[in-house]
């Protein structure tokens, strides 16, 4: 979830505060792995979310809350904004501020306006938010609906936050509870959103909001020793001396990995799709210039969307995340950025196995792939299957970069400085919004 902004590198020096809970050097990443090997996604989940030693547990105060909204119209320009932001981070015992916090309430108001324009207001409005952070989005959305929607819409609405962190769940209750009328409509369910047992079945139309959630979902890794060799699952195991970790390659068997490969149209045998001439050429290159292949698969996203579509078949979805991350050193397609901070200095790692609970692991989102996963998990036929083209899609989707989204639904004039510089539009060039709504086409 740590924000790495491609177009504005100076901000990266403020993203992780040095005033964080110290990491115990006695606890190494090898403790995330038992005597038996585990899939890469399970290692990443433990490195980030282990209750005692995961990154987010080590940094329980990592998500910050601004005491007051930034008055952008009073700042002269980019230099003044950066100076103001630097001062905020230096006085705050936190790791980062999310966009919805930096640009409150305007960022959340844009999301609320998108919901208002798209939803059927003749039925009670129900919103789920996954990973609601400090509750700033929920508060902003509910504020906007109270002020701008017909009173019957606000009076009958419900807002449910699904939050895995108990400390953040409490913070959300406090933030939203500052408006007494919101409290009756808002509740927090402290659980893992990817666990289907916590959902049940809700057949009513609803909205699901996910802001900076996809980047920290566990991923799997597959490996092939050259361009035409079969793909293999990557597992993580302890070395014989048990002080270091290494990769172990196994035959493809995991069903979640299989689903992702099906969506990506990756042949399990590793042989290239296409013409026989192209296949022969690749086989020749593989023999003359063998090159190992590594591919990161968003299995955590796939599992979450499978659960959401199963539990909320009429949901509409709005998600925002990073489409690109600069300075990634980890090899492989859709590889993550692994970053830590020590003594006030940020450093990027060359190996994801270096994550010891003191490093964030976050991935770029391939929004075209996200759309395919969304259609796949909604029950539509395999995206690459030509027969599916004859059937109507169950989802209507659109991807917008953040500036386009906010210009359409938000009030960008509220985050503009005196000289015209607008950090909400200018500094988040590597973030996008994804909107997905159901259609009446169910056959």
Automatic annotation (TrEMBL):
Signal peptide: none
Gene Ontology CC annotations of this record: mitochondrion
Catalyzed chemical reaction(s): L-arginyl-[protein] + 2 S-adenosyl-L-methionine = N(omega),N(omega)'-dimethyl-L-arginyl-[protein] + 2 S-adenosyl-L-homocysteine + 2 H(+)
Keywords annotated in UniProt: Methyltransferase, Mitochondrion, Transferase, Ubiquinone
SUPFAM superfamilies in the record: S-adenosyl-L-methionine-dependent methyltransferases (SSF53335)
Major localization class: mitochondrion
EC number, as in UniProt: 2.1.1.320
UniProt-annotated location(s): Mitochondrion
GO molecular function: protein-arginine omega-N symmetric methyltransferase activity
GO biological process annotation, one example: methylation
Homology family: Belongs to the NDUFAF7 family.
Physiological role: Arginine methyltransferase involved in the assembly or stability of mitochondrial NADH:ubiquinone oxidoreductase complex (complex I).
Descriptive protein name: Protein arginine methyltransferase NDUFAF7
């Amino acid at each position: 979830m740590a924000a790495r902004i491609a177009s504005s590198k100076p901000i990266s020096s403020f993203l992780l505060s040095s005033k964080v809970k110290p990491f115990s050097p006695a606890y190494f990443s090898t403790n995330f792995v038992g005597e038996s090997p585990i899939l890469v996604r399970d290692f990443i989940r433990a490195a980030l979310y282990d209750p005692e030693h995961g990154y987010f547990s080590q940094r329980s105060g990592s998500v910050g809350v601004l005491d007051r909204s930034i008055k952008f119209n009073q700042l002269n320009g980019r230099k003044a904004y950066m100076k103001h932001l630097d001062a905020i981070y230096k006085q705050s015992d936190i790791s980062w501020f999310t966009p919805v916090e930096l640009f409150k309430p305007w960022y959340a108001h844009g999301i609320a306006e998108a919901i208002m324009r798209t939803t059927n207001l003749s039925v009670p409005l129900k919103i789920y938010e996954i990973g609601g952070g400090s509750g700033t989005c929920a508060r902003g959305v509910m504020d906007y609906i109270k002020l701008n929607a017909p009173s019957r819409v606000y009076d009958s609405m419900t807002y449910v936050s699904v939050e895995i962190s108990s400390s953040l769940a409490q913070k959300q209750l406090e933030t939203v509870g500052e408006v007494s009328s919101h409290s009756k409509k808002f509740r927090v369910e402290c659980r893992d959103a990817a666990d289907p047992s916590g959902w049940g079945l809700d057949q009513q139309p609803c909205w699901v909001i996910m802001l900076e959630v996809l980047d920290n979902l566990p991923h799997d890794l597959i490996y092939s020793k050259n361009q035409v060799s079969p793909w293999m699952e990557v597992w993580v195991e302890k070395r014989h001396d048990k002080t270091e970790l290494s990769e172990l390659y196994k035959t493809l068997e995991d069903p979640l990995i299989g689903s992702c490969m099906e969506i990506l149209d990756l042949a399990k045998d590793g042989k290239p799709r296409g013409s026989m001439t192209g296949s022969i050429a690749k086989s020749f290159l593989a023999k003359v210039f063998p090159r190992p292949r590594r591919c990161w698969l968003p299995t955590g996203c796939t599992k979450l969307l499978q659960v959401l579509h199963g539990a909320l078949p009429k949901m509409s979805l709005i998600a925002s995340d990073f489409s690109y991350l600069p300075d990634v050193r980890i090899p492989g397609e859709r590889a993550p950025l692994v970053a830590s901070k020590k003594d006030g200095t940020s450093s990027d790692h060359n190996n994801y196995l270096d994550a010891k609970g003191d490093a964030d692991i976050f991935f770029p989102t391939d929004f075209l792939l996200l759309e395919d996963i969304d259609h796949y998990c909604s029950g539509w036929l395999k995206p690459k299957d030509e027969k599916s083209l004859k059937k109507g899609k169950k989802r209507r989707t659109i991807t917008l970069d953040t500036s386009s989204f906010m210009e359409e639904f938000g009030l960008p004039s509220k985050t503009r400085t005196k000289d015209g510089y607008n950090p909400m539009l200018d500094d988040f060039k590597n973030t996008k919004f994804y909107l997905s709504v159901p259609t009446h086409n169910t056959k």
